[in-house]
């Protein structure tokens, strides 16, 4: 049986924590898309693990797989593995031979393209990890796959074809002189990446992910799919072009791992929801409170005082600052049309709603129940980003709930969740059409109210 964990919003919903909470019953944890653009947090007994590439199952000592749908930067993978070992874990991570490799020129080109776009204020605000350029090369049939790193001759052939092209792209198209940069130096790349290939092979990390998982499933083992990013960042179902370059939605779990869609669909699909909304980078956000200069389109720091205060309060209470950059994240009220879209796209069988504690103490909690677009009421997100940007939220208001001893609430169970918070959760479940499986009331593993275990 499989359980798929999917972000319902714009990433950072707390997927890592939910994978950890339910992960006890999983034998294998699989990332099926994305790369080190992700930042997943697991907190166990107050100890925090921030994982960008290693699946969150590593904290519980599970077998972990980076599926063929992932893009793998071997440098960050090995750094992360070493750091986890230093902290006393013994991570078992397998890498699909079909997964594509992020090379240094991908990162450089990610930055170059963002710079070029910034001249017309149209940058995406990517994580700069080379994600888009790597998926471009995959689709362009000029990528390097993890399995090929371990075969020096093939690796050399691939690099001989692609590196001059990348150099020409940087220099002739974008007018950026990359000169002697190692990122575009064929020999240096060959040396470094054939070394990674050797290490992957020697450590027995390379697998045919589909076959590997099929065997485990045949043996009666349980598989958890750990989505990265979120539905509105999905390249097909998100707000293009302010998206990532992969499919975080549940369909991606099949394509990105080699497990058949019927197997994924036979299992459970849990949508992870943050009880409000946060966004990193550019793009529309109809329920945004105040704004963040440089990220919020057209925002110049001029917002109503009460909105600014509310945004600051939620940002502080929820720790909404970038993990790497420390940049403040954009925050806003929960967007229910977005969640209806997410539930339909991935077929949620249950919801895990995090950060219910973060909203505690507010007198009023609002949600966008629908949108108004030129006088028309919409219940779900429009397919074009320009139309979405024109949507005005139609708010509903809920009475707030008090701050309580959340660890005690988690211990006692759902009935101990304050009444007003339960009314909020039940409204959400009703609108989205999926029951509440878990309620996050703090970052720690012990601070989750488990209503239902999908395993
Ligand atoms: P992910 O990318 O979806 O795995 O989420 P992140 O780890 O990027 O961001 C979620 C942040 O919120 C992390 O710092 C978590 O430890 C924290 N978090 C998760 N669930 C809760 C919750 O229910 N309450 C609070 N206060 N923090 C939470
Ligand atoms: P997790 O898994 C939040 C955003 C970036 C940018 C856009 C494209 O931790 O939820 P990319 O580098 O992927 O080409 O950037 O997607 N983004 C995320 N935002 N959480 C993430 O991951 C994200 N991964 C990418 O900010 O707007
Ligand atoms: Mg994150």
Distinct ligands: guanosine-5'-diphosphate, 6-O-phosphoryl inosine monophosphate, magnesium ion
Mean pLDDT: 97
| Overall morphology | globular
Total number of β-strand segments? Answer: 20
> Do you know the CATH topology of the largest domain?
Adenylosuccinate Synthetase, Chain A, domain 3
Question: What's the name of the CATH homologous superfamily of the largest domain?
Answer: Adenylosuccinate Synthetase, subunit A, domain 3
CATH architecture of the largest domain: Alpha-Beta Complex
The Cα radius of gyration reads 22 Å
**Helix/strand structural class:** alpha/beta
- Number of helices in the DSSP assignment: 15
- Name of the CATH first level of the largest domain: Alpha Beta
User: What's the story with the biggest beta sheet?
Assistant: 10 strands, mixed
Question: What percentage of amino acids are in beta strands?
Answer: 15-25%
The residue ranges in which pLDDT falls below 50 over 5 or more consecutive positions are none
Verbal overview:
This protein has 15 helices and 20 strands. It is of the alpha/beta class and 455 residues long. It has 3 domains: 2-95 and 206-270, Adenylosuccinate Synthetase, Chain A, domain 1 (3-Layer(aba) Sandwich), CATH 3.40.440.10; 101-200, Adenylosuccinate Synthetase, subunit A, domain 2 (Orthogonal Bundle); 272-450, Adenylosuccinate Synthetase, Chain A, domain 3, CATH 3.90.170. The strands form 5 sheets. A 10-stranded mixed sheet has the order 9-7-5-2-10-1-11-15-19-20, sandwiched between helices. Helix 6 packs across helix 7. The protein is globular. The model has no long low-confidence stretch (mean pLDDT 97). Bound molecules: guanosine-5'-diphosphate, 6-O-phosphoryl inosine monophosphate (IMO) and magnesium ion (MG).
């Amino acid at each position: 049986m499989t359980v798929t964990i999917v972000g319902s919003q714009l990433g950072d919903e707390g997927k890592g924590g939910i994978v950890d909470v339910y992960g006890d019953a999983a034998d294998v944890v699989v990332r099926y898309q994305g790369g080190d653009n992700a930042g997943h947090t697991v907190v166990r007994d107050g100890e925090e693990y921030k994982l960008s590439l290693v699946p969150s199952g590593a904290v519980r000592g599970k077998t972990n797989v980076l599926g063929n749908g992932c893009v793998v930067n071997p440098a960050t993978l090995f750094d992360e593995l070493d750091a986890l070992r230093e902290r006393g874990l013994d991570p078992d991570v397998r890498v699909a031979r079909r997964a594509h490799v992020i090379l240094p020129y991908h990162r450089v080109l990610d930055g170059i393209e963002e710079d070029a776009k910034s001249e017309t204020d149209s940058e995406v605000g990517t994580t700069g990890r080379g994600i888009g350029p790597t998926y471009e090369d995959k689709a362009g049939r000029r990528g390097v796959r993890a399995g090929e790193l371990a075969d020096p001759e093939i690796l050399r052939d691939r690099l001989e074809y692609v590196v001059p092209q990348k150099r020409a792209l940087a220099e002739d198209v974008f007018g950026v002189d990359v000169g002697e940069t190692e990122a575009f130096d064929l020999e240096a790349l060959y040396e470094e990446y054939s070394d990674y290939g050797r290490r992957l092979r020697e450590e027995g990390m390379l697998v045919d992910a589909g076959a590997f998982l099929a065997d485990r499933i045949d043996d009666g083992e349980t598989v958890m799919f750990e989505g990265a990013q979120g539905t509105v960042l999905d390249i097909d179902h998100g707000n293009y072009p302010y998206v990532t370059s992969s499919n975080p939605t549940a369909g991606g779990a099949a394509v990105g791992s080699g497990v058949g869609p019927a197997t994924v669909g036979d299992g459970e699909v849990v949508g992870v929801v943050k009880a409000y909304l946060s966004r990193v980078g550019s793009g529309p956000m109809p329920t945004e409170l105040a704004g963040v200069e440089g990220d919020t389109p057209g925002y110049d720091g001029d917002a109503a005082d009460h909105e600014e205060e509310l945004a600051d309060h939620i940002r502080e209470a929820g720790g909404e600052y970038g993990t790497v950059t420390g940049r403040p994240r954009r925050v806003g009220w929960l967007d229910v049309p977005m969640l209806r879209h997410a539930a339909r796209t991935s077929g949620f069988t249950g919801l895990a709603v995090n950060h219910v504690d973060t909203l505690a103490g507010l007198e009023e909690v609002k949600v966008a129940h629908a949108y108004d677009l030129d006088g028309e009421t919409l219940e779900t997100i429009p397919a074009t980003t320009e139309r979405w940007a024109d949507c005005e939220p139609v708010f509903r208001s809920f009475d707030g709930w008090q701050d309580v001893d959340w660890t005690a609430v988690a211990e006692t169970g759902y009935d101990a969740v304050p009444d007003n918070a339960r009314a909020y959760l039940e409204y959400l479940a009703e609108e989205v059409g999926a029951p509440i499986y878990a309620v996050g009331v703090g970052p720690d593993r012990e601070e989750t109210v488990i209503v239902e275990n999908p395993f």
